[in-house]
Design a protein that fits this description.
The complex is a heterodimer. By secondary structure, chain A is an alpha/beta fold. Among the domains of chain A are: 143 residues, Rossmann fold, CATH 3.40.50; 70 residues, Alpha-Beta Plaits (2-Layer Sandwich), CATH 3.30.70. Helix content of chain A is 37%, strand content 28%. Chain A contains 11 helices and 14 strands. In chain A, the strands form 3 sheets. Chain A has a 6-stranded mixed sheet with strand order 6-7-8-3-9-10, with helices on both faces. Chain A has a 4-stranded antiparallel sheet with strand order 2-1-4-5. In chain A, strand 12 and strand 13 form a beta hairpin. Chain A starts with a strand and ends with a helix. The model of chain A has no long low-confidence stretch (mean pLDDT 85). Chain B is mainly alpha-helical. Chain B has one domain. Helix content of chain B is 79%, strand content 0%. In chain B, helix 2 packs antiparallel against helix 3, helix 3 packs across helix 11 and helix 8 packs antiparallel against helix 11. The chains are: A alpha/beta, B mainly alpha. Chains A and B meet through helix 2 and helix 3 of A and helix 1, helix 5 and helix 12 of B.
Chain lengths: 314, 240
């Protein structure tokens, strides 16, 4: 549904996007994750035709967005970062105006406006001026406007920016509902937002795609190099057994009840140390009740991927 | 075309939702009314609106930049331009829609001045010749087209309404100075060339009742060229 190949964008001497490429099949909800200034918004602005890439290609619903930009723009709905709208207009006038611009035919217009009003729960504020609405409702109005032409693709740039926790929860639930029957690309630097709404994550940093996969795949790829063990014995005995088996590793220990300890062991390499840890503790006749490899959360993956990319560049 | 008209109608409507729209109309009607009362209603003289058109042209030099300054600058400043730029419309649709909205506002602003015409017909004996009156209004609309298209270009170049206003105003004033004042101080050949680009001489011709096709083409072609320039400025933003 979205095909992006080798996008490059310079702003003067700044190389903001450096060969970004990805492919999103129909019906998938994808999160574009990255720190501020990573190139997320620039990538989305190129996808939506607001700016053009210097090199690369973009196809949306099979339409070449650079050769036939107007046709391609019919295929997606876009919610810009600040959810802009005209504050002096009433919600219904704004939606009617946007429907005309988006090319919704006169006979369908009323029905589509009613549909997005229901989908985004705008009933209570439908007749009010946008300037009088809360930030959460303004966000919904902008989202409703992006859905008017019933697009196959929905592109959302930082959709929960500036919202309070309740509004964030509402927005997240709304996006989740919308993602049921559409291809959705959401950009954000807020991890829980992506984790809860998207089935696939693209991590972008310094204008490049650093990682791409489902959250589970990314966590799995970045797991290793550590394990958690719960065992019972003398602290000094446990430590000497482990340092002998895994020289150079770091061991964090937390005392539990009845002489039990929880140890967090990290090795220098990325190999899973569960097996040598189990063997070392058994040989030292130390009782083990739990031993599991350390799994990384998306937040840890995000930090690790960014650190690796910085380390790689240095 | 639906998209262009949607942009135009929102623009016209929004000009009535901001104080500047009403202030511009009130000021314009007050000044044109005063000029009409002092310049056209003179006992014993032929009934004509000719003095009103010259002054109205000068007023348009001030008023048109105030109308056009927010056309695109405001969208750029508030971020709503992103909505337009990512919509299935071309830069030409955006520019034409904005321009038509402003032109409709100008027409609405000129509409109440028809009261002056009615008064002139009511108090004059014999009645005034309608030809020069119609030609005069046509000239104001054509000159308004030129000013508003220039304002659209300025508005497409900056997100500052003040800069857009000053840019349009200064360009129009410079144009007036170069084509009306400078010819007196340069050689006859260059002076004639400069004077041929004058607005005021053309508007004066219209006010006498002469609709010269060359004058119509002059205003329309310059306006069209400027609108193409505004469209190019918006396209350039996609590459910048």
């Amino acid at each position: 549904m979205i095909e992006v190949v080798d996008l490059h964008r310079w702003f003067g001497s700044v190389h903001a996007v450096r060969g970004v490429g990805f492919s999103i099949p129909a019906g998938q909800a994808v999160g574009l994750l990255g720190p501020n200034g990573a190139g997320k918004t620039t990538t989305l602005r190129m996808l939506t035709g607001i700016i053009r890439p210097q090199t690369g290609s973009i196809a949306i619903a099979g339409i070449d967005a650079l050769a036939r930009p107007v046709c391609a723009r019919r295929e997606f709905g876009y919610l810009p970062e600040s959810a802009p709208s005209y504050p002096e207009m009433a919600v219904r006038s704004f939606l009617a105006h946007r429907a005309r611009i988006l090319g919704v035919s006169g006979k369908d217009r009323k029905a589509r406006i009613q549909a997005v009003q229901d989908e985004c729960h705008l009933g209570p504020v439908y007749k009010r001026r946008i300037g009088q609405l809360s930030k959460g409702y303004r966000q919904r109005v902008a989202l409703a406007a992006a859905l008017l032409h019933n697009p196959k693709v929905l592109i959302l740039d930082e959709p929960t920016n500036g919202l309070d926790p309740t509004q964030i929860r509402e927005a997240r639930s709304l996006i989740g509902d919308l993602a049921q029957n559409r291809t959705v690309l959401v950009s954000s630097h807020i991890l829980p937002e992506i984790e809860r709404t998207c089935e696939r994550v693209i991590i972008i940093g310094a204008g490049k795609v650093l990682a791409d996969g489902t959250p589970e795949e990314l966590c799995e790829q970045n797991t290793g190099g550590g394990c958690i063990v719960e065992c019972r014995g003398h602290a000094a005995q446990i430590t000497s057994a482990l340092t002998a088996a895994l020289p150079g590793s770091t061991i964090g220990s937390d005392p539990l009840e009845d002489g039990w300890w929880r140890l967090n062991i990290r090795t220098k390499d990325s190999a899973d140390p569960s097996e040598p840890v189990g063997a070392a503790l058994s040989n030292a006749r130390i009782q083990i009740r739990q031993l599991r490899p350390q799994t990384a959360g998306l937040e840890e993956v995000f930090v690790r991927v960014l650190e690796d990319s910085i380390g790689g560049e240095e | 075309m639906t998209q262009t008209l949607a942009i135009a109608s929102r623009e016209l409507w929004s000009l009535f939702r901001v104080p500047v729209g009403w202030i511009v109309i009130a000021l314009f009607l007050f000044l044109t009314g005063a000029v009409f009362t002092l310049g056209s209603l003179k006992t014993g003289e032929p009934a004509t609106l000719r003095p009103v058109y010259g002054i109205t042209m000068m007023l348009l030099v001030l008023v048109a930049p105030a109308i056009s300054m927010r056309l695109i600058s405001e969208e750029l400043r508030t971020g709503t331009y992103e909505l337009l730029a990512s919509s299935p419309v071309t830069s030409a649709h955006i520019v034409l829609g904005k321009f038509l909205g402003a032109l409709a506002f100008l027409a609405v602003m000129l509409l109440p001045t028809l009261i002056n015409v009615a008064v002139l017909f009511a108090v004059s004996d014999p009645n005034p010749d309608p030809g020069p009156i119609l030609a005069g209004y046509l000239s104001l609309m054509l000159f308004g087209c030129l000013c508003l298209s220039l304002g659209t270009v300025a508005s497409a170049l900056t997100d500052s309404q003040t800069l857009a206003f000053l840019g349009t105003l200064l360009t129009l004033v410079c144009w007036l100075m170069i084509t009306n004042v400078a010819p007196k101080y340069v050689g006859p050949e260059l002076g004639a060339r400069l004077a041929s680009a004058s607005f005021s001489a053309r508007i004066d011709d219209f006010a006498r009742g002469a609709i010269d096709t060359r004058h119509v083409v002059f205003f329309i072609s310059i306006s069209a060229g400027l609108l193409v320039g505004a469209g190019a400025a918006l396209e350039f933003k996609r590459w910048k």
